[in-house]
Amino acid sequence: MTPRKGTPRPRKRTFFAALKRVATRALAFTAVAGAGFGVWWEVTRSPALAIKVIAIEGTSAERADEIRALLNVKPGDNLLFADLAQARARAESHPWVASAMVKRELPDTLRLVIRERTPVMILAADRLYYVDAAGNAFKALQPGDAYDLPAITGLTREDLLARTDVARAAIGGALELYAAIAKNGAGALAPEEVSEIAWSETDGDSVVTVGGRNASLPGLTIRFGFGELPDKLARLREVRNVRKDFRDGTGTVDLTYAQRVIVAR
């Protein structure tokens, strides 16, 4: 059957219906987006989420103030938008900070938990530096700092700057020797007797003890050389048990030979 000519087709009705659907969806999206923006604006501007307290634990009040001054956040900043990674990095840039944990505590507190470095020796190079148990020379000593730690000597500023692998190995060796004395030195050498560990690239490590009865005297020089520390401490124990005059005097004990110990006054 052939349709009659002039029968109207509902194109306009279909077009306007589609346009209405699109407009309705657009308005709904705009409403949702507007509401979302309003929430975002409220969250970012709300005084309820402003930082009021930057709490720092694990360090002294004085160092806590120094750490706060390094941070990229301050009271009044929005807690939710604080950059915790950057705050941690800045806290760990402080020479006494080994590590920092940073966390938010709603509604208004940013908390940092600090693990401090502990100096175990002093590196004497172009100036004096604290050295921690990991071998990091982390802080130059200043007036008022404690100096009552054994010294590591023999390294130069050029070693520290241009031969970092050599310098790190030398510091690590001195720390290893000091730890071995603390662990295995009973009857041979006590940690509190160690005044200096002198490093030589060719001869290894030597310990200079605290002076004897006469404080102006340098004490013993004990040459350990390289490695075999438990065996050398055992031989030193035998020598010091036999030669009581070396217990509190001066002289040299050479432990670098495999089959003998050379003692000199």
Describe this structure in words.
With 265 residues, this protein is an alpha/beta fold. It is 35% helix and 25% strand. It has six helices and twelve strands. Strands 6-5-4-7-8-9-10-11-12 form a nine-stranded mixed beta sheet, with helices on one face. A three-stranded mixed beta sheet has the order 1-3-2. Helix 5 crosses helix 6. About 4% of the residues have low confidence.
Summarize the helix and strand pattern as letters. HEHHEEEEEEHHEEEHEE
What's the main sheet like? 9 strands, mixed
- Helix content estimate: 25-40%
Oligomer: single chain
Task: Provide the low-confidence segments as ranges.
Answer: 31-41
The span between the termini is 132 Å
CATH topology of the largest domain: Rossmann fold
Binned strand content: 15-25%
Helix count, DSSP H or I runs of 4 or more residues: 6
The SS-based structural class is: alpha/beta
Radius of gyration: 35 Å
The top-level CATH class of the largest domain is: Alpha Beta
